[in-house]
Amino acid sequence: MKLGNLLNQLSELTSIHNDEFDSIEIVGISANSEEIQPGYLFIAIPGYQTDGHDYIESALSAGAAVIVGEKDKSDLPVPYIKVSNSRLALAMLACEFYGNPSRNHIVIGITGTNGKTTTSFMLKHMLESAGKTCALFGSVYNIVNGQITSSQRNTTLDAIELQKQIAASQDDFIIIEVSSHGIAQHRIWGIEFDVCLFTNLDQDHLDYHHNMEEYFKVKASLFDQLSTQGRAVINCYDSWGEKLADLISQKEIIPLGKDAYFLERKSSDPIAHLFLNNESYKLKLNMLGIHNFQNAAMAFLTASQLGINGQLMEDCLQSFSGVPGRFEVFQHPCGANFIVDYAHTAAAFSQCLQTALEMKAKSITHIFGFRGDRDPNKRREMADVSCEFSDLSILTFDDLNSIPHKKMEETLLQYHKDGKTLVIPDRTLAIKHAWDTATNGEWVIITGKGHENYQQEFELPTSSDAETLQYLLNNSNEQEASIS
């Protein structure tokens, strides 16, 4: 693609243009100097830990034909385009370079603090049960044209990779889990969404967004990218969802919990009834969790807007097997239930723990921790909710990030309550303690990591909560076999 064509997209960010640019052929774009090849355009982005401007010389040595950045630069051997916002420029260039690929698909964006992953997997299952093909970009894995690749650290791919993958997709539908960081950092710029979903909002990421109003505004801005005929499916059982519905009232809205769209369910009943324009549908799930009925309803309403048959959706929900790390159940030989869940906010804790209460747990043990370098203001509420709904809270390590081992241990001790909590920093040993002391009818809820691998090494030779439980289960089976 000619540089001149690409620069037409940057008119908002720069007034620089030169007729000579029209003849420069760009064969690729990247913000990573290690990916640069001859003929590439390199975009220098000021990061949180490193500054891309420091890697311009490396990009030039690798053959970069053009450099884009925010800082003043002179005497470079190739054209340098100064812009006001490198991240936005990256998104604009990526969208144009890959030919605005979202226009060739039906694109669904799902945002919210909790429930994005489960809702996306349920929706994908419904669409595929109807014979459609579906790409998925999210926190567990990405799948395009039936090929699964592991997810990056970010829920939402960077702008270049996302546009590249959408362009490569031959699928009928594209489902994207859209994080607040992904929106704020322009990773989804230029994507036209046919349907956008809002699941809920809870205190999270306030180390980045500063306050709940700012967090909400970022999430709400996703709905600005709805296509002209686009629809918004909003969970109005959540107060922030109600606020969003009022804010975008000029758009076509399907509001779960309002008007003709609502759920009815008796406590502990494995079936809920979804009412959709005076029609009643049964939502019967194999997944535990009160919150999963709302996730299922959001997926159902979305699929119905896409023309999927209601009876088919009823049937395929019953065959939905769940999502790795989302209320994933492991059975202890003694009859206790061990649950692995990604819950990392107070509201998500409450949903998990109240599910155990609803299922008549004889006792509840909750294992969780706090992530280093993340919003510390939500920790007190997390600890309070855990103590309110569980008989014992075991405080342990989550991802330490840059926080030293000793400092995080001291942080955990700040939330210790005599008779109500234990502090066992090693996560695998915390799980082992609960495993070794488990009793029939007890529920042990392990939250925070879900499907994710551990970032640091622990004493047991395992790399995730699920793997730790499987390791303990295997050991229990071996011991039982040796005794018999």
Automatic annotation (TrEMBL):
It is an enzyme of class 6 (ligase). Residues 110-302 form the Mur ligase central domain. One of its GO terms (molecular function) is UDP-N-acetylmuramoylalanyl-D-glutamate-2,6-diaminopimelate ligase activity. Keywords: ATP-binding, Cell cycle, Cell division, Cell shape, Cell wall biogenesis/degradation, Cytoplasm, Ligase, Nucleotide-binding, Peptidoglycan synthesis. Pathway: Cell wall biogenesis; peptidoglycan biosynthesis. Its EC number is 6.3.2.13. It comes from the Bacteria. PROSITE patterns: FOLYLPOLYGLU_SYNT_1. Signal peptide: none annotated. This is UDP-N-acetylmuramoyl-L-alanyl-D-glutamate--2, 6-diaminopimelate ligase. It comes from Lederbergia graminis.
